[in-house]
Amino acid sequence: MNIDLVRNKIESQLNKKVVITVYGMRNKISRYEGILYKTYPNIFTIMNDGVEKSFSYNDYITGNIKLRVL
């Protein structure tokens, strides 16, 4: 996957409700539900209960996070 393709794919989903699943170390899994808020050259953010959380496009490409549009 190319980072530009991923960025364009995510930008097309702006202002939609999403669920982000983060696969961390030691089999820890975190889930965040919110609105896809902003995109930047290297990261994208979601608004989760009034708190902005950021994620990397590289983490999406490598499978460390999964993004699902609701």
- CATH structural class: Mainly Beta
- Ends distance: 23 Å
Shape: globular
Mean pLDDT: 93
Number of domains: 1
CATH architecture designation: Roll
**Alpha-beta classification:** alpha+beta
- What's the number of helices? 2
The counted number of beta strands is: 5
Radius of gyration: 11 Å
Quaternary structure classification: single chain
CATH topology: SH3 type barrels
The main sheet comes to: 5 strands, antiparallel
**Helicity level:** 10-25%
Biggest sheet: strand arrangement: 4-3-2-1-5
Order of helices and strands: HEEEEHE
Portion in strands: over 45%
- Uncertain parts: none
Overview of this protein structure:
The protein contains two helices and five strands. A five-stranded antiparallel sheet has the order 4-3-2-1-5. The protein is an alpha+beta fold. Helices cover 21% and strands 50% of the residues. The protein has helices spanning 3-11, 57-62; strands at residues 17-23, 29-39, 43-48, 51-56, 65-69. It has one domain (3-69): SH3 type barrels (Roll), CATH 2.30.30. The longest helix has 9 residues, at 3-11.
